[in-house]
Amino acid sequence: MLGVMRKYKQSIVIKVVFIVIVLSFIGTIFLVWGKGGSDGRGGKSYAATVNGTKISLDEFQKSYYRTRGLYEQIYGRTLTPELEKQMGIKKLTIDTLIDNVLILAQADKMGIKVKKDEVAAEIAKIPAFQKNGAFDFGVYQQTLKANRITPKDFEESQEQEMLLQKTRNKIKEAATVTDAEVKEAYKKQNDKVNLAYVSFSPADVKGSIKLTDQELTTYLQDHQNEFKTPEQVSVAYTLVNPAQLAAKVNVTPEEVQTYYQKNIDRYQGKGGILPFAEVKDKATADAQKQKAAKEAYEQAAAAVNKFKGNADLDGAAASLGGKVEKTPLFTAKAPAAALAGENEVVARAFALKQGELGGPVETAKGIYLVKVLDRKPAAVPPLAQIKGAVEAKAVEVKAADLAKKKAEEALAQLAKGGVAAKETGSFGFAPTGQVPTIGASPEMMEAAFTLNAPNQAAKQPFKVGDRWYAVALKSRTEAPLTGLAKDSGTIKAALLPKKQQEALDKWVKELRSKAKIDINPLVLQD
C-alpha cells in the first residue's frame, strides 16, 4: 500500500480537511467481528450485535466521543448533559454503527469493492499529507505517527469509509424524479392559492371549561412535580472571621519573602514589578492575612472534628470565640437573609442530615460551621390548599386540547362549505412558510399547495402560536405550463438530492427491519 502511495506525490487535488479524516478514523468502521460476548459478570461486552456481527464497546465509545465533538464544534461550546440527552447523541451513534454494519454486508453481496489505488489517490488529496501542494510520503508517515495511528490502520479505515460511500451512492443513483413530480413542483412554485380558515385559541374556549374535584385530583396526581413545595431547612451557624486573628499572627521575614515571590504579580507598578524593599510592608500585611486565614481554617476544622460526634455547635463556637446564629426555614433558591449570597454555605446545609454538624466552609465573609436544626422534605400540598393553582393549570391544558379538537371538527365543516370562515387572500409558495394573515407555518404552506379542489380541507389542523387553524382551499389560480419545459431540468436537479436521500433512508430502514439487532442497554444510559 505504501508503495502505491508514492505514485501520488504530485497530486494537488484538495477535497477534505485532515481533521475530518482523523475523526473518521477514530470513530467509524473498526468493528469487532465476532470478538467476545460477555464481560465476565453476566453483562454484555459489546455495544450491539447485528446479524451476529459484534460492535465493540470500545468502538461505540470512540464513535460517541467523535459525534459529540463534532456537535460541540458546530455549536461552538461544550454540550450540557441535558442538551446531549435532548439531541440523542448516544442513540445516533449506535444507530450509525449498526447501519454501517448492514451497509458493508450489502456491499459484499452487491460486489462493490474499493481498489488500493483508489484509497491511495484519496489519501493523497488530503492537505495534511501534502508539502508544497503535493503529497509527501514523509509528511504522511510523520503525521500519522504524531497521532498514534499506523498507516495500515489508517488506510484500512479509509478503505471502509470509501466502501460505505460507494454503496450509499449506488442506492442513490437508482433514485429518479418523475415528470409528474417535476410538474407538481413547478405548479407549487408558480400557482397561487387562497385559503379559507377558522381558528381557535385556548383563550377562546377557556370559559366553557368546568372541572370537577375528581378531575382536579387526577390532574394533581399526574402532575405532582408542578406543585411540589421545595425542600426547606433551618440552620444554626457560627462565623469565624480570620481578620480577628491577623493581629495575633506573626510572620517571619522568610515567610514574607516567600509570599512575595509566590504572589509577585500582585505588586505591579507603572514600570513593572516593584522591588521587595518598596512593598515590604504591604507584603508583610498580605502574608499575615493569608497565614491568619489558614490558621483560622485549621482551628475551625479542629473544632468540627472535636464536637462533631454530638453535633455540639455551641461548644465548637465557644472554642473559636464565636457566637451561634439561627435561621428560619428556607429553600435552596430563597436562602435566609443572613445567608444571602453564601451559596457554598447553603449548598452544604442541604447536603447535611438533620442534627448534623458540618464545615468548615470558607467564603469571602469568613469560615462557617453549620448545623441543620430542622428539615422539611419536598411535598405536594393537599388539593384544598392549592386548588386555585391546580385548577388554573388544568384548565390551561384542557383549553389547549379543546382548541385543537374544535379545529379538527371544523375541518369537516370547511369541506362542506358550511361554516363562516376568513380568507388568507391569494398567495404563492414561500419557503419560509409565511401564510398571509396567519403567520409562519412551513407545514401549512406545504399542505396548502397539495390542495386542488375547492373546499378541499387539509388532513389535519395546524398550530401557529397558541392558535389551532383548520384550513381548506378556497381557490387555486393555476399558472400556465408554458415555462415547464424550460424549467424542468433545474427543478429535477433541485428535487433529486431529496429523492436520493429518501431512497437511501428507505433502503437502510428495510435492512434494519430484516436484521437481528441486539443493543446493549448500557450504551444508551445517561
UniProtKB/TrEMBL annotation:
Location of the PpiC domain: 251-387
Protein name: Periplasmic chaperone PpiD
Provenance organism: Geomonas anaerohicana
Top-level lineage group: Bacteria
Bilayer topology: Single-pass type II membrane protein
Protein's UniProt keywords contain Cell inner membrane: yes
Annotated TM spans: 12-33
Xref: Pfam families: Rotamase_2, SurA_N_3
Keywords of the record: Cell inner membrane, Cell membrane, Chaperone, Membrane, Transmembrane, Transmembrane helix
Family that this chain belongs to: Belongs to the PpiD chaperone family.
Compartments, record wording: Cell inner membrane
